[in-house]
Specification:
Length: 149
């Protein structure tokens, strides 16, 4: 029996910072990623997550950030802008229920996906981001729109 496409996506030993103020969505995404072999650090507060990332307070080096777009206190765009000041090439996946929000991330070097994001698509996005050896420019979207520049 042939392996499914998901089974062919072997996770790399890596640490993902997952930032989402919605505890239920954060727990679901965390479970999906952990079951697939990733070490996931979940933060419900983007300001605290930013401070910990900047100070290197996490138990392992973060290789990928997955964040929501709309969060109290700091939007996903603001969160990404702050990260880019000290981690200009850290892979970042932004997930939003608002397709039009993609324009806010122009020039911030992120992958943007629209909710709902099924588990297999989340894993594909994560795998693509961590396996892509060359830095991504602009924004890549899951929609039919070309990447924003």
């Amino acid at each position: 029996m042939a392996a499914s496409p998901l089974e062919q996506l072997m996770p790399l030993p890596m640490t993902i910072l997952l930032v989402d103020d919605n505890a239920v969505q954060a727990a679901i995404r965390q479970a999906i990623l952990r079951r697939s072999g990733y070490f996931v650090i979940t933060a419900l507060n983007p300001m605290r997550a930013l401070e910990q990332l900047r100070n290197g307070d996490f138990p392992a080096e973060v290789q990928l950030v997955v964040t929501d777009h709309i969060m109290p206190g700091m939007s996903g765009k603001e969160f990404v802008q702050h990260i880019r000041q000290f981690h200009p090439l850290l892979p970042i996946l932004v997930i939003s229920g608002m397709e039009e929000a993609v324009d806010e991330y122009t020039g911030l070097n992120v992958e943007f996906r629209v909710k709902p994001l099924p588990p297999e698509r989340l894993l594909e996005c994560v795998h693509e981001l961590v396996c892509d050896a060359s830095p991504v420019e602009g924004i890549h979207t899951a929609s039919s729109h070309p990447p924003a520049r």
